[in-house]
Design brief:
mainly alpha; two-stranded antiparallel sheet; single chain; 263 residues
């Protein structure tokens, strides 16, 4: 019942991103069929695992973006709608490219083997940049006074967006070095489904945690608000969680750079 109410509210906040998220989840489910019958591999894993992961993670991200952007101050309502539209378009471009490359049996990311592959990766990079700019604009707008939501939740949103920028920066590091692995080549043994390397360092772990701060920090703020403690203690709690979360990301980043696997 609670989940149903949340989805109803999400649909009211952004029909566009709500609908796109449902489409992505449905796509991930549909991809279970080719996953079960395709015996090809890309860098040692089934070609359909990556698009399934991206469909699920993208759905979670755009739902979080839709929910949070709705809580901007009322004077920024038009900005909220514009940002939702731009983010939706930018990610609509990325998913089909990943699907095309998986169907072709080649990598979608860090693939410069042909001009066509490089073009597709470049297009994805462009729209990821646009998406990052949208996040930065959202953060700036949330720095203004906001009477629409309580202070603790506002702090949680701000911190989530800041930490997510760190995750985006780790993504840029991967792009600069042309792969996500450190000390070994991309591919090889990895943990199930996520395929994080068990042979060398893997920057995707810190990148993953950074990106999902957009959900973790506002949710943490929401639950902290339910605690029977004074306001200053609540502020200490949300800042403490942000510091621990950020420190964990930095630790994982440094571990990856050293060439050491998570497990």
């Amino acid at each position: 019942m609670i989940i149903s109410k949340q989805f109803t509210e999400l649909r009211k906040r952004s029909p566009l991103l709500f609908g796109y998220g449902i489409f992505l989840i449905a796509t991930a489910i549909a991809l279970l069929l080719p996953l079960s019958i395709d015996d090809r591999t890309i860098l040692g894993i089934n070609p359909w695992i990556k698009p399934i992961k991206f469909c699920i993670s993208t759905a979670i991200y755009i739902w979080a973006f839709a929910w949070i952007s709705f809580d901007l101050p009322h004077r920024f309502n038009k900005w909220s709608k514009r940002l939702n539209t731009i983010v939706g378009i930018s990610l609509i471009i990325e998913i089909p490219i990943i699907l095309i490359q998986s169907a072709r049996g080649v990598r979608s990311h860090f693939n410069f083997e042909t001009n066509f592959d490089a073009l597709l990766f470049g297009i994805m990079g462009l729209f990821i940049l646009i998406n990052t700019i949208c996040l930065l604009i959202l953060l700036i707008l949330f720095l203004f006074k906001n009477d629409r939501i309580n202070t603790i939740y506002l702090i949680g949103i701000r911190l989530g967006l800041i930490i997510m920028m760190i995750g985006n920066w780790v993504g840029q590091v991967m792009i600069n070095q042309g792969q996500h692995a450190v000390g070994v080549r991309d591919g090889g043994e990895g943990i199930p489904f996520l395929n994080w390397s068990t042979e060398g360092g893997d920057l995707r772990i810190a990148h993953f945690l950074g990106l999902h701060a957009l959900q973790i920090m506002p949710l943490s703020a929401h639950y902290i608000n339910q605690l029977d403690i004074n306001h200053n203690t609540k502020k200490l709690c949300i800042y403490g969680i942000a510091m621990i979360y950020t420190a964990f990301i930095i630790l994982l980043y440094r571990q990856a750079l050293s060439g050491s696997p998570l497990f």
